[in-house]
Amino acid sequence: MRAPGGDTRLAPGDVLLSVEGVSLSFGGVKAITDVSFDIRKGEIRAIIGPNGAGKTSMLNVINGFYHPQQGRITFKGATRQKMRPSVAAAQGIARTFQNVALFKGMSTLDNIMAGRTLKMRSPFFWQLFRHGPALTEEIAHRKVVEEIIDFLEIQAIRKTPVGKLPYGLQKRVELGRALAMQPDLLLLDEPMAGMNLEEKEDMSRFILDVNNQYGTTIALIEHDMGVVMDLSDRVVVLEYGRKIADGAPDEVKRNKQVIDAYLGVPH
Ligand SMILES: Nc1ncnc2c1ncn2[C@@H]1O[C@H](COP(=O)(O)OP(=O)(O)OP(=O)(O)O)[C@@H](O)[C@H]1O
């Protein structure tokens, strides 16, 4: 399968993104306190922790949705404290959401095509009339989208409005839309939430395939420990907004602070 236009300057294992000393508060609520970790090119990195630990806030900092009061983010060698989500997306960071965020009345195909918008270069005027350069461009984008539809095995639902699909398939379409951006870093916020066992197995397989076949670096938040341990290369653990552990799944699983955090042992 065709590589998704990744950054060729970095080799697998190089630091793709680093989070340094990030702190984020909402009024008096400290969501993240002085957290540092990195994500290496080609890996599957899990971010775990009990409810309210700051995981979603961290994804929102990484994709520019929240601006931390302290700390900085370095992505592909460029450092920033603040960045708009649209700029983060244009630089190669795509994400999915805890609750599916698709255009429910639009078909699978159109939703995934919407993920290509960022890559469209011809003037809006031409796009409107699907004419001239916009037509040539649309054909090229369509090819990428069709490849993704084949890859995710959703040919049968390509014309179906996504609001009519079962939840597991909606999550798969959302993954497809993020892949259509051909990201260097894919952020998945609880990709298995609300799924039954079979749907979880399917989604796990697709996440592994995206990582193996496209070589896409993935950071995911997930509550299902079995899934986390099976899928991820490294795991960072947050509790009350602080990092309490970081390492290989086996290491993290045996960490006393992590066990206590999950059992709710007070500090
Ligand atoms: N927009 C916001 N305004 C105010 N407080 C917020 C906001 N977003 C998050 N918080 C608070 O920040 C803390 C961390 O929340 P966050 O959603 O990042 O945790 P989480 O680890 O993703 O939790 P969960 O597993 O329940 O999704 C919580 O105390 C939460 O109430």
Topology:
Elements: E1 15-26, E2 29-40, E3 44-48, H1 55-62, E4 70-75, E5 78-80, H2 85-90, E6 93-96, H3 108-114, H4 124-129, H5 132-151, H6 167-179, E7 185-189, H7 197-214, E8 217-221, H8 225-231, E9 234-239, E10 242-247, H9 249-254, H10 256-263
Parallel strand pairs: 3-8, 3-9, 6-7, 7-8
Antiparallel strand pairs: 1-2, 1-4, 4-5, 9-10
Helix pairs in contact: 3-6
Question: Which key phrases capture this entry?
Answer:
single chain; 267 residues; alpha/beta; Rossmann fold; 2 domains; 6-stranded mixed sheet; 10 helices; 10 strands; 37% helix; globular; binds adenosine-5'-triphosphate
Note down, in words, how this protein is organized.
The protein is of the alpha/beta class. The chain folds into two domains: 1-92 and 183-267, Rossmann fold, CATH 3.40.50; 106-181, no CATH class. It contains ten helices and ten strands. It has helices at residues 55-62, 85-90, 108-114, 124-129, 132-151, 167-179, 197-214, 225-231, 249-254, 256-263; strands spanning 15-26, 29-40, 44-48, 70-75, 78-80, 93-96, 185-189, 217-221, 234-239, 242-247. The strands form two sheets. The chain has a six-stranded mixed beta sheet with strand order 6-7-8-3-9-10, sandwiched between helices. Strand 1 and strand 2 form a beta hairpin. Helix 3 (108-114) packs parallel to helix 6. The chain is globular. The N and C termini lie far apart (49 Å). The model has no long low-confidence stretch (mean pLDDT 87). The protein binds adenosine-5'-triphosphate. Residues 26, 29, 31, 49, 51-57 line the site of adenosine-5'-triphosphate. Adenosine-5'-triphosphate (ATP) binds next to strand 2 and helix 1. It holds the Pfam family ABC_tran. One of its GO terms (molecular function) is ATP binding. This is ABC transporter ATP-binding protein. Residues 17-265 form the ABC transporter domain. InterPro entries: AAA+_ATPase, ABC_AA/LPS_Transport, ABC_transporter-like_ATP-bd, BCA_ABC_TP_C, P-loop_NTPase.
